[in-house]
Amino acid sequence: MTIERGTTQEVTITIKGWNLTGCDIYVTFKQGARKVTRNTMDSVTYANNATKIVLTLTQQETLTFEDKKSGLVQVRWVDASGDAHKTQTARFDVDELLYEAVLTKEADDNG
Predict the structure, then answer these.
(1) What is the 3-state secondary structure (H, E, C) of the chain?
(2) For the whole model, what pTM was predicted?
(3) Parallel, antiparallel, or unpaired: how do β-strands 24-31 and 84-86 relate?
(4) How far apart are alpha carbons 89 and 31 in whole angstroms?
(5) Dihedral angle at the C-alpha atoms of 21, 78, 38, 47, nearest 10 degrees?
(6) Which of 42, 38, 47, 36 is nearest to 14 (CA)?
(7) How far apart are CA 72 and CA 87, in angstroms?
C-alpha cells in the first residue's frame, strides 16, 4: 500500500480469517513518531472468509507522514464478547509531495 501525501485517500485493508462486522475497529498508521489512528470506517464487509475494511484518510492525515519513507499499519478490534484482537503489522510506503498544503476549493468569482 502507498499513502499518497496531500490527498483525500481511500484505503482498503483485507483481513483473512476474521469476521469483524459489528466490532469496534481501530486502524493505526505509524511512521517514526508520527501516528494516525482511525476508528471511523467507510465500510466493513465480510465475504470469502475475509473482512474488507474501507476508510478514507483526509489531506491533513496523509500530510502527517514524511516523503519516501515506509511506515507500519495495524488493525485492532474488540469483538461482541469484549475481547481485544490485533493483526500483525504491515508495511506501507509514502510517496513524494512537492507542494505541502491542504487544498480547498475556492469560491467562484465569476458569479
Answers:
(1) CEECCCCCEEEEEEEECCCCCCCEEEEEEEECCEEEEECCCCEEEEECCEEEEEEEECHHHHHCCCCCCCEEEEEEEECCCCCEEECCCEEEEECCCCCCCCCCCCCCCCC
(2) 0.90
(3) unpaired
(4) 12
(5) -20
(6) 47
(7) 11
- 74, three cell numbers: 495495524
What pLDDT digit, counting tens, does each position of 2-50 carry?
A: 999 999 999 999 999 999 999 999 999 999 999 999 999 999 999 999 9
Query: Cell numbers 464487509 label which residue?
Result: 45
